[in-house]
Amino acid sequence: MRANGFAVRVVCIVVSIVLTVIGSERAAAAVSANGDNSANPTTQGADPSIGLGGLGRLTINGGNGVISDGATVGDLPAGIGLVSVTDFNSSTGTPSSWTTNVLYVGDAGMGRLEILNGALVTVDAAGTPGTGDFVVGNFADGVGTVIVSGLGSMLKMGDDTVIGQLGTGTLRIENEGYVLGTNSAAGDTDIFTVGVRGRLEFGNGRLKTEVFTNHGTITGTGRIDNINPIGNSPTGHIDIGAGQRFVINAILDNDGAIAIDGGEMEFFKALTNSAAGAEITLRDQGILRVSQTGFGFDSTSGVLAATGGTNDVYGTVRIQTAASKILSTGGSTLVFHDPVTNTGGQIEVFAGSSIVYLQGLTTTGTSSMTVSLADPETTPSNAVTVTGDASIAGNLNVNLASGFKPSAGDAFEIVSATGTVTGSLNIASAPTLPGGMKWNLLNTGSDISLSVVATGDYNGNGSVDAGDYVVWRNSQNQQGPGLAADSNGDGFVNTADYSFWRSRVGNVVSGTGSGGAVPEPAAIALILCGAVLCVCSRRFVPRHYQCWDGLRSDFDCDMMFLWKALTNSRIQRNWTN
């Protein structure tokens, strides 16, 4: 009995081993094709169509391979093709593979190619590098998707590649997948293009190409290595979101849009803006890293902007022409950690926003700075802050935030530095201020500030004279913002504003920031006569009166001070007629 029991156990073990081996062989299925496909799609050298006019599938796994000539996945408009090339032979390490001379995924139909878990797909003429094209989303109705996922998973192309030629194409490289877009064959240039309807999506993947142009969208976390400069065309977008990090190891000429919204982007070689529509925007802790050799970011046109939150730029920066701009808006702060040189470009800061230069700032005489001002009591003004020295030159353009009306005494910090501020700015344009006020620009040696100062020139004709008295008299006791005769900016026109005018009668005002022609003497006389007639219609002029300095006591005193404005004659503290 015991011997029989032992024999039974041995038989059971042997059967179990046999079943395990058989099951393993079945799990490692070779190649299968089913559905609406062309005839014999797995035959070597065939031109298979997977998803000819309906649903078709091709599966390659277990370290097996298929060699085709020209292949299509999702052929006709009603065709749906699904191809999966996955895993490898665990005994030999041979990857499951598909090699084809030409491949269209989503020709006029819908196609999907998956390269997973260490598998390999090669698109090139066998033995003749540089003669096979790879297209994802070929015709206008074609929709193609290619996914390369997993460590060791690889897509190799030996000639031109287009993602979204006329149709919609997506190439996604994830989980350490790798796409090699060049065979480096001598005398052959391999061109990789992302079309207008193309998307290149990364989820920790890598792409190497020879010549690369983007007309569509690049997004995610990953890296591109390109042998020649990369072109991001006017329709091209590179979008890096929160938590994403993207690296480009190539020169990139940006004519389109790069948006870093909470993510990080690094360029190992030069990044340039060279078209009017070129823009690089950072938002909500966006980080841009460029080279510190030469000028890591060099702009002759376009904008580098922060649109919200605090954002950082590392590496040397230069903007060269009036068509290039550094901009901070939306209450954002843009921090430059390395030297910035402005040799003719624009620096623009909107109200409530700021730019911080941690390694100094240099601007030349052809540069310009534009600031937007708001109420200093509610919106602190610190447009440009420099750690170290600032060498400043060029023009200053002043704008006002919507609804803001400056008052006398308002002050705005334009540039401040922990070191020395040398040079000056020239006010090239500024809003017209109410009569009686002008813009005043001051360099203290550690900062450049702009303030609104009162002049007494209430009608803005360039001199303090009788016409200004008329403006004051007509607006006496009025209240509100921006009143022309409100010299101290307290919102009221009263005797204090009269006294301010009176103490400056005869002065000539320059740089008032307000327009208006200077009246001829005859015109001033007419103003005086009008004032006399206006008041005489209401009041009796006494023969004997007294005028006290500093207090407008009655009509006769007013007229005497008007006469002073016209004749520069002296007025006694006390006088009697």
Question: Could you characterize the architecture of this molecule?
Answer:
- The protein starts with a helix and ends in a 10-residue tail after the last helix.
- A hairpin with a 3-residue loop joins strand 47 (437-443) and strand 48.
- Helix 2 (466-475) packs antiparallel against helix 3 and helix 4 (521-536) runs antiparallel to helix 5 (555-567).
- The protein is built from 5 helices and 48 strands.
- The strands form 2 sheets. It has a 32-stranded mixed beta sheet that branches.
- It is mostly beta strands and 577 residues long.
Task: Describe what is shown at a glance.
The chain is mainly beta and 577 residues long. Helices cover 13% and strands 40% of the residues.
